[in-house]
Amino acid sequence: MLAYLQVEKLTKSYGDLLLFEDISFGIAQGQRVALIAQNGKGKTSLLEILAGDAQYDSGSVVYRNGLRVSYLPQEPKYQAHQTVMQTCFASDNEVVKTIARYEAKLQKMGEDSMDAEMEELLHLMDYHKAWDYESRIKQILSKLNIPHFDRQMSMLSGGERKRVALANALITEPDMLILDEPTNHLDLEMTEWLEKYLLKSNVTLLMVTHDRYFLDRVCNLILEIDNRQIYSYQGNYSYYLEKRQERIEQFNAELARANNLFRTELDWMRRMPCARGTKARARKDAFYELEEKVSQKMYEQRLQLDVKASYIGSKIFEAQYVSKAYGEQKILQDFYYNFARYEKLGIVGRNGSGKSTFLKMLLGLEPCDGGRFEIGETVQFGYYSQDGLQFDENQKVIDVMREIAEEIH
Predict the structure, then answer these.
(1) Of 39, 111, 206, 302, which has the most beta carbons under 10 Å away?
(2) How far apart are CA 264 and CA 190, in angstroms?
(3) CA–CA separation, 58 vs 65, rounded Å?
């Protein structure tokens, strides 16, 4: 595969906080890569470095010559007085620059004149597919539910401004996309459209997302920043969890063996502080290396994508370590589950084990003793309870239905 990006021995820190050290990886043409890490461990910083928006301490970032790269930051910048369309045409990309040069050249030259510069500009207009740039902008904006192209950016919500920035990143049809949480502020329909767009375009992709379903559908490679290093997994999120667990178990086993050896060597160091022979010096050097290794912490076994605010359209609900008991009868204890869209889940259990209680806690009809349910912002539940529908017996059927919904699809 053709190499698009090569990162070698990259290090980044903020003061005493070391995010990653001497990390190396590459991205090839056609790969769709998800970047995963705990919050605050360097995901956004790495994307900013790759996009040229942040400095790094050491190492190198090399793109293939002539590669067209578009970047969607987590918090896009904008000019409040500009309209949506002006914002799209104010983007600092080669397509907009080519259009501006072409229009300026048209104003300077006569109707029949043609020179080398104009021939070059015509070639660039063809190369960048710039002739229908405005219509393509409007098409993508409409798909992202931004129908009013003349509205000022200051009048848009934060979610709408993020979607305008996403449209800007997509419209140039780059060779490589770098996206920081692209599904934030997208509803279900918009997220599905973006999935299809990315898969159909065959664009090379590097993104950060907290939407596991979106990640599984779109990405074929996962990079994980962990303990200031980077690890690569060729597969989807489920494969990543399996292989990461294997790596953790192997690391913890090695660390346990190192701790056992350390206790033996520590006892020797205390008894032989003045040892001067060659073997003794080598053993002392090995002790200090071992001491550094055992200073590392064992990994926790539990891992999920970071728990953050609701992601519009991508999250249905997330049970965040929910506990519930009635007296001494425990219904749930530290229960975690992330329910993605399109899942179909059945709850089974003996009578009285808590099935209905679980549903009531999910719907907010029953409090949790510990933990909480995080519900996606656009999610609406339809609930058929064990007790059936509660209604006034004197009401007509149509009136009962209207209280539930004016329209039935």
Answers:
(1) 206
(2) 60
(3) 22
The residues near 131 (Cβ < 8 Å, ≥ 6 apart) are 125
The SS3 of residue 32 is strand
In this structure, what are the phi and psi dihedrals at residue 221, rounded to the nearest 5 degrees?
-150, 140
Is 90 exceeded by the pLDDT of residue 339? no
Determine the Cα–Cα distance for residues 394 and 397; give it in Å rounded to an integer.
Answer: 9
Q: What is the 3-state secondary structure (H, E, C) of 159-196?
A: HHHHHHHHHHHHHCCCCEEEEECCCCCCCHHHHHHHHH
d(CA 200, CA 182): 17
Sign, CA dihedral 393-395-399-403, equals: negative
Residue 299 carries which DSSP code? Answer: P
Residue 28's H or E segment, with its range, is strand 17-28
What is the distance in angstroms between the CA of the first residue and the CA of the last residue of the chain?
48
pLDDT digits 0-9 by tens, 100-111? 788 777 777 765
With beta carbons less than 8 A apart as the criterion, state whether 23 and 7 touch. yes
User: Residues 35-59: what's their mean pLDDT?
Assistant: 94
Q: Rounded to whole angstroms, how far apart are CA atoms 195 and 121?
A: 33
| CA atoms of 9 and 266, how far apart (whole Å) | 34
Q: Categorize the per-residue pLDDT at 38 as very low, low, confident or very high, splitting at 50, 70 and 90.
A: confident
Report the chain's mean pLDDT, rounded to a whole number. Answer: 84
To which residue do tokens 């409090």 refer? Answer: 367
What is the pTM assigned to this prediction? Answer: 0.65
pLDDT per residue as tens digits for the range 203-258: 999 999 988 888 988 999 999 999 899 999 998 888 888 888 888 888 878 777 77
Query: Do strands 204-208 and 32-36 pair parallel, antiparallel, or not at all (unpaired)?
Result: parallel
